[in-house]
Specification:
Length: 553
């Protein structure tokens, strides 16, 4: 009995071990990076995503592409998480982060073939990432929150090469104004910048409203269209007769009783309307319903009423006007009212909306984006989201870097110098990290139709000469000073990209055994929530894992 093999895995399970597992994971990561690499830079190409229903997305936004693509390979999913983390933390640089992660894996593949151990590579990569982050801090440029010119340049850089590029100067100004309006010192919450997409007209007709636009209309045609110097009330409830909490019946024996019952309901609704009027409200926003009779009495009082207002809109209304939301109209007092110089129902692109404008201190604003088609405006929206993110990050951190591949070339040279001081085989990993960073300027050159070798040689020469801001002009092919050209990115875009890419690459390199079981391939989403991290629940798409990326995309 003692000589018989111990069988642990089922007959249906699949297992890839050792160098085969490492190779499979490296190939998966490289494939994800290659899928978005051509979108990088001002001359990056777009991609079209089409689902089974025929719905189409045209974009070159990295995180949008990766999140929408059907990716089944678990190692590839880890690279997708790099883009998602970059998007959550900074809002831009998702493609760069994924491309760097893919190149780190590619460089590691060569060293693995030379029998350099994966843990040695992981240690060297971590040392290189730490040194790179420190070097970025040294070359970063301080920016004041009132420096509108650099903030504009940062916003415009984030939109370069995307659908919003034709109107980027106008949109950059709108983005900077919007973020500065909602800024509370060191804290900037871009959720207070509401983006309203309107199909029709040109992108250049986009505008910023210092206030809030609610995608609703007044509940009654008898109400005014416009209120000037309006007192605004916000009610988190209904203007209706409350139903009993238990089932109840009302037995009416004669018409007088029915009339009294109806009169009592009408009196309650009239009282609600009078309470709103008595505190001096000119406009009331309700997140619930408004009874028809209550609408009638509110209209008689000359009050504009809006119902079914989303909680997010109510929060922005409260922030913009200074109103305090109340649970019921019984709780409403004069102190709870906010102020707006103008509340009006206006038509925009055939739809009626409520515009709340001319507020004292617009801490919530609305950006109206225009575009000729839905696909165009969706891509402009994604560019605006990136732009809002980088301006927010700049205001929070106060540090920026020159763009155009300049930081990566500078880091590459610094890391090669640092590698001389690193002992052991980790030195090879640090040098590989330095080579991997150059994938950014190399890709910028390739996507612009330039010779990547010539471009890299010129960039290295300029940086060796002390020009830390030397980057590649994708339009002319020249090496120029990106600071003078006004091409800037927030420091956090680069530091986050390097940290996330390094962590993902290290995690994949340390995996030497991949196991999948046939009976787990049919697990549904609810079951996956209970599975331990790293388990096989997310590996249902690995039926063909022996063939590498055969089922990835």
């Amino acid at each position: 009995m003692g000589n018989q093999p111990l069988i642990v895995l089922s007959e249906d399970s699949q297992r890839t071990s050792g160098k085969d597992a490492q190779s499979m994971n490296v190939q998966a990561g490289k494939a994800v990076a290659e899928s978005v690499r051509t979108t990088l830079g001002p001359k990056g190409m777009d991609k079209m995503l089409v689902d089974s229903s025929g719905n189409v997305i045209v974009t070159n936004d990295g995180v949008t592409l990766l999140s929408e693509m059907e990716i089944d390979h678990p190692a590839a999913d880890m690279i997708v998480e790099v883009a998602e983390t970059q998007e959550d933390e900074v809002g831009d640089g998702t493609t760069s982060a994924v491309v760097v992660a893919g190149e780190l894996l590619s460089q590691a593949e060569d060293l693995l073939d030379q029998d350099i151990h994966a843990t040695t590579l992981a240690q060297g990569y971590r040392q290189a990432a730490e040194e790179a982050t420190a070097a970025l801090e040294e070359i970063a440029v301080d920016v004041d929150e009132d420096d509108d010119e650099i903030l504009h340049q940062i916003a415009a850089t984030a939109m370069t090469g995307k659908g919003a590029e034709n109107a980027r100067d106008l949109l950059a100004d709108l983005v900077v104004d919007a973020v500065q309006s909602v800024s509370d010192g060191d804290d900037v919450d871009t959720d207070n910048v509401k983006v309203e997409k309107v199909v029709g007209s040109s992108t250049e007709n986009s505008e910023l409203v210092e206030g809030v636009i609610v995608d609703k209309e007044r509940v009654s045609d008898n109400m005014p269209y416009f209120a000037e110097d309006a007192s605004v009330a916000i009610v988190n409830g209904d203007l209706e007769i409350k139903e009993t909490e238990i089932d109840a019946e009302v037995n009416v024996t004669d018409p007088d009783q029915l009339e009294q019952f109806l009169e009592q309901e009408e009196a309650q609704l009239r009282e609600m309307a009078e309470q709103v009027a008595d505190v001096g409200a000119d406009v009331v926003f309700v997140d619930g319903g408004i009874d028809d009779m209550a609408q009638h009495y509110l209209a008689q009082e000359g009050i504009i009423a809006v119902r079914r207002v989303k909680s997010s809109d109510q929060s922005q209304l409260a922030r913009a006007t200074g109103a305090t939301p109340v649970s019921t109209v019984d709780d409403l007092t004069e102190d709870d009212l906010g102020f707006a110089g103008s509340v009006a129902q206006k038509e925009i692109a055939g739809d009626q909306r409520i515009f709340v404008e001319d507020v004292d201190d617009a801490q919530a604003v609305t950006l109206i984006l225009r575009g000729g088609t839905e696909h165009v405006i969706d891509e402009v929206d994604r560019a605006i989201e990136d732009s809002l993110g980088v301006v927010r990050t700049t205001l929070e951190d106060g540090k920026v870097l020159a763009g155009g591949g300049a930081p990566e070339v500078e880091l590459s040279l610094a890391l090669r110098d640092y590698a001389d001081s690193v002992g052991g085989r980790e030195q090879l990993a640090v040098e590989a990290f330095a080579d991997a960073l150059e994938v950014i300027p190399r890709t910028l050159a390739e996507n612009a139709g330039l010779d990547p070798i010539d471009s890299l040689v010129e960039l290295r020469a300029d940086h060796d000469g002390g020009n830390e801001a030397a980057g590649l002009d994708a339009f002319t092919g020249d090496t120029i000073d990106m600071g003078e050209e006004g091409v800037y990115e927030p420091l956090r875009v680069k530091t986050q990209a390097i940290e996330s890419a390094t962590e993902a690459a290290v995690m994949l390199l340390r995996i030497d055994d991949v196991i999948a079981a046939g009976d787990l391939a049919v697990a549904d989403d609810d079951d996956e929530e209970d599975m331990p991290a790293g388990g096989a629940g997310g590996m249902g798409g690995m039926g063909g894992m022996g063939g590498g990326m055969g089922g990835m995309m």
